Every structure is written in C-alpha cells, then in structure tokens.
Amino acid sequence: MADKVKKSTNNTPPTPASHLETYEEVQKLHPLYFNIVKKRYWWFAISLLVIIPGLISLFVQGLNLGIDFTGGTMLDIPFNNAVTQTAIKDTMKSVGLEGSVQLSTNNTQALIRTTALDEDQRTKLLDTLQKNVGDYNKANLKEDKVGPAIGQELTKNAILSLIIAMGLMIVYITIRFQFAYAISGILALIHDVLVTVGLFSLFRWQIDSSFVAAVLTIFGYSINDTVVIFDRIRENESRIKKSQTYEDMVDKSIWQTMRRSINTVVTVLIALFSIFIFGGESTRVFSLAMLIGVFSGAYSSIFNASQILVEIKNRLGLTRGRKRARAKS
Amino acid sequence: MKRGNILKLTVVVLLVAIVATLSVKPLTDSQKGIPLGLDLRGGVHLVLQAQPGKDGSPVTKDDMDNAKTIISKRVDEMGLSEPIVQEDVPNKRIIVDLAGVQDPDKAVNVLKTTAQLTFRDPQGNVVLQGSDLKDARAANGSQNQGFVVNLTFSGDGVKKFADATTKLVGQNLGIYLDDKLLQNPRVEVPIVNGQAEITNYSSLQEAADYAVLFRSGSLPVSMTIAEKRQVGASLGADSLAKSMQAALYALIFIFLFMLAFYHLPGMVADFSLIVYALIVLWVLYLMRAVLTLQGIAGLILTVGMAVDFNIIIYERVKEEIREGKSLRAAVESGFSRAFITVIDAHVTTLIAALTLYFLGTSTIRGFAITLAVGIIASLFTAITFTRMILRWVVGVNPKMNTSWFGVRRKQNG
Known about the structure:
Order of helices and strands of chain B: HHEHEEHEEEEHEEEHEHHHH
Number of helices of chain B: 10
Distance between the termini of chain A: 26 Å
Structural class of chain B: alpha+beta
Strand content of chain A: 5-15%
Strand order of the largest sheet of chain A: 3-4-2-5
Shape of chain B: elongated
Structural class of chain A: alpha+beta
Oligomer: heterodimer
Largest interface: A-B, 81 and 83 residues
Radius of gyration of chain A: 27 Å
Number of helices of chain A: 14
Radius of gyration of chain B: 31 Å
CATH class of the largest domain in chain B: Mainly Alpha
CATH superfamily of the largest domain in chain A: Multidrug efflux transporter AcrB transmembrane domain
Largest sheet of chain B: 4 strands, antiparallel
CATH architecture of the largest domain in chain A: Up-down Bundle
Helix content of chain B: 55-70%
CATH superfamily of the largest domain in chain B: Multidrug efflux transporter AcrB transmembrane domain
Order of helices and strands of chain A: HHHEHEHEEHEHHEHHHHHH
Number of domains of chain B: 3
Strand order of the largest sheet of chain B: 2-3-1-11
Largest sheet of chain A: 4 strands, antiparallel
C-alpha cells in the first residue's frame, strides 16, 4: 500500500488535486449517502427477519423435494387438445398408479408425478392415456425417471459437495485475508445460502438437481462482492487516519466501493433475469435460486459482511491498540 | 503514436469481426459443431444398474467391462453422431447418453433388453448360453423363406448346438431373454456345423432387429434402468431456441448497461465480451464438451460475471482519476489494484464449479464445465485483451476528456 502512495506522487505532478479521497469527499460523492455501519443492527435485523422464518419452515416442513431427490417418474405430456385432471387421474388409477397431475397451457400440458415406473408400466400408462384421454405430441414429450437409489445419492452428494466447497472456501479466504475477515465473509455466505434455501422452503417451491448447482454457485459467487469491499477495507486499514474511527474507515470503504458492488451484481442479475424470463421452464428453478442468492449476496456484502467484521474487531479488540486508542478519543 | 494506435485498434476490431463471422459455421454445425446435449436436441439419458445374480453372486469388474462393450455395440448400431457410453465401476452402472436419437422409445427398448440370452428346450432346460453365439446377421432368405437371420456358433457352442438340435428335431428350441421368450423356432434338421438359420421374418428390418438382440443380447449381468431422462426432439429444439433468446437478451442488456455507465471503456468491455464469447465457444468446441441446457445457463451467467472484471477495474480507474492521477497512470494502477480483487473473487467461484464437477450428476456437470471454462476465459480475456485495448485507447489521446471515462473532473474543467 505504501508502495502505491509513493507511486502516485511520482507519476503525477504534485498538484493539490492529487490526494487520496477523504471520508467527507466520499460522502459528498454519493447523493444517497447515509452511515451504513452505524445502523448495522438494523441491517442484521432485516436479515434475520428473512432467515428465521425460512429456518423455521426448513425444520418444520423441509424442502419440497422433486423426483431428483425422492426418486420417481415425471411425465410432461403435451396433449393435442385440452384435457381434464379427473380423466388423467382415473386413467392412472385404472393401471394401478397414484400421483399428482398438474395442468398448464390451457389445460393441454399435463405434468404427472408418480413413483418410479419400470418400462412396462410406463408404456402401459402412456398407451392408456392416449386411448382414454387423447392424443399427445410424442416429439414434445419429456420424461424423467429417477430410481430411489440415485435420488438418495444425489441428496448425499449435494450435502457432501456443500461441505467440501465450504471447507475449501474457508481455507482460501482465511489464507487470503485475516481470520476475522474470513469469518465475516463466511457468515455472509451462509446468510445467502440460508436466505435462498429458506425462501424455497417457505414458498414450497419444488427443487430439482439444478438447485444444488445454484446453491453451490451462490456459494462461490456471493463472496465476490464481499471480497471487493474487504479488499478496500484492508487497503484503508493500513493508512487509517488519526481522527478516524475503525467504523468510519469501514463506512468509507463501503461507500468507495458502492458503485462497484452494485454494478457487478447488476450485470449478473441482468443475465439471470434473461434466463428466468426467456429461458423456459427447465431452467426456472436454477435461475430463481440464483436470482435470490445473488440479490441476497449483494445485500449481505454491503450491509452485513463488513459490519460483522466491525463487530468482531470491536468485541475481540482486534483493532490494533493504536487505533482503538484513537477510536476512543 | 496516436495514428499508430488508431490503426492498431482498427485492425483488431476488423480481425475480431472476421473471426466471429468465420466462427459461426464451424461452431454451430449440426455434425461437427459444439455437441449439443440431449436436452437441446432430444434424446435419452439412461443409467443402467447391474443387478447381482439371482444366487447372490456379485458383479465383477469384468462383468461391467463386458456389459459396457456389449451396450456400446448396440449403441453404435443406432448410428448416432456422438453417443456416450460410460462405465461407473464402483456403483456398477453403465451411463448411456443418446442425444439426437430419433425414436427414444425404440432405443430404450433395444438397450433395456439387457437380459441374458439363452436357448432352452421345450422343458425349459437351458441348452446354450448367449455367449456360445458368435454372430447373428439378417439376410434375404431363399425362396419361400422370407427374410432370415443367420446364426454362427463358436467353439463349444457348435457342439452344444449340434447335440441340442439332434435331440430336438421336430420340436421347438426357444430363444429367451431372461425369462421372456423372444423366438421359438422349430428345429427342422440337426445342425452340426454351427451354422443355423431362422427363417420367415416379414421384413429385413425385423430380421435385423432380432439379429441385434441375438448377437449383443448376452449381457453377463442383468440390468435395470436406475435413471432415465427423455426429451422429445422438438422440445429440445424449443429449449435451444429459448436459451439462445435468453443469451441474446442478456448480451444486449449488458452491452447497453456497460455503455450507459462507462462510456468509452464500456465500449471496450463490450468488445472484450465478444472476444470472451469466441474464446469460450472455441474452447468448448475443442474440448468436445457437450453443451446442455444448464450449460447454456452457466454460460449466460459467466457473461454477467465476465464484465465484472471490467467494472471493478473501471470503477478503480474512475477513482484514481478523481484522486488526480493522469488517465494513463489511472488505467495502469486501476488494473494492477483490481487484479488481486478479481482473482480472489473468481477463485472461490471456481472452487464451487470444480466441486460441482466432481460430485454432480451428468446434468450438473454440463453446468460446472461451462462455469469453469467461463471463469478462466474471462480472467484470461481481461488480463490480456481488455488491458491491451484499453492501453491503446488511452494512448490515442492521453489527454482525452475524462468524461469519456464517466468522470467529470472538476479540476480539469
């Protein structure tokens, strides 16, 4: 950091204009400025307001697991004409099957969920449906069958990969940053995952294997904007001014990086909204989970991560004595 | 200097435009282009689980290898462009991906007949195993025979078949797949040379279908379908069209966003994005990595992430300009400062992608691959290309108005 300051004085003529941005200047630069560190308990409260109901829901009703996890057969049948739920259910019953039926697209598209069918059962069901309910377009048929063993495996692997990825990231962040930073960053990460998983549980949105991919990507990505801010705090920490408290320094850092934090997320959100709106049914679970996760990631980076850092440093007295003394004065 | 830079920039822009135009055909070629997954062009994905023998005998590695060879043989008969047959020995599974298969139901039927082929006498005693059969071929029969399948027996099989046919003249010799009777031909004469003929098929196609079952019907273990994902062909095409549309809108809006916020550097970012897209697509092409629906979602996501680097750098540059640095110094220190930040941010996402790849199912793998390729390509593009272009742009006129960089410098005005 010292190196950088030296470089800037070397490279540019010593005009009064060449100086590091002061806290006041940063505040003036942002028309919407408010002290984002001082109000931290409010931000924490907002996070908890979302996370706690999600957690309760998670414990009470769990996640709405799709056949990828539970095993089963899912048939998405595009009938040529409108059909009724009773007709399909009766047909299923006639071949000895139970399950749920969901109609869409003017009652022509039927989504059937039932236990894992073997080939004979499945052919029998499709044939009987064609006979009793109506013709369907074979070229548009979608079918997923997941055996119970495969489903259990996916669940196991999903949990395993979350743990492994979390472990690796904790190691990486701890190596790259001080331990206090790492803890704050990881808490923010967990925040994002809990928000996403919690909301999915709360609203009973059904999840498939792509949800696992989304959660892990959120895990990897949401540290992104946190790192951007931490990087700045690390830089500012080394040249903290006499008159400045640690909190103000963090507040300044957050505002200095505010545009970056927002814009980096905006482009990713643009990408995700495009997938969500135009990408079709198959990627909707994925894009919805990612949207929530990335949005939550932006929030936790700006409103939680650095504030947790301030808390940890304050509580544990990790702000070096020199600075603490100043902070008190 | 200034002229030189303008010239260099023009050349690069033209070059990228030419490469982009020339890339369209090879990349999207339906045969040799980037292979599309079955969710984008229809097809079926099967996970076949080997079952331990009825007497509880375990499935060996040899069994699995043989099973894979036989299934590959059946798959090859289908004449698909890039079918995948993989072996998962620890879990005793064979994974089959048949993208672009015209009639998935029929394909599953051929593959699912994973049972053991046996020849049995009318009392149900097994007289020959499928492994005794060397070959089975469809042919035009002689007069009044219709179409035929010629069977050739191997080694022990010749003798066993000779014994059986001698004993069973005038009776039927059933050909079974597991316990299912496939064919029940009558033995007309004893056959001692190991060359038999089953006659009276109604079409050559029917004879050929049976021939396939005969010659590859002898799986060493019986198998069940543990997982099946089937997508109709036009549904696949529909998904492809939709995800292309999503990609297009994502690109357009990100382009506009970057232009609106970052002006001149925004244009550089947009241009780099095109280069980035070319790199990613060519890497996928060369890797022969199958592009799935989730994979495209991953790609679109990385487009959003790829501009990240630009944003982080440009905001840094803006700041350095505000601090009073010259444009050139601001760009240089902006790059070097932002670089560390970006590395940190991307490594963690890369960790997630790699974990997904090693633990995920095949659908998730498609996503993990594009995500990983995307991240590495975006870093590469930013470090090499974006930096170079931005230097040249600044070099055109180092004293250019900083409002082109989205900064109004009061001191200048």
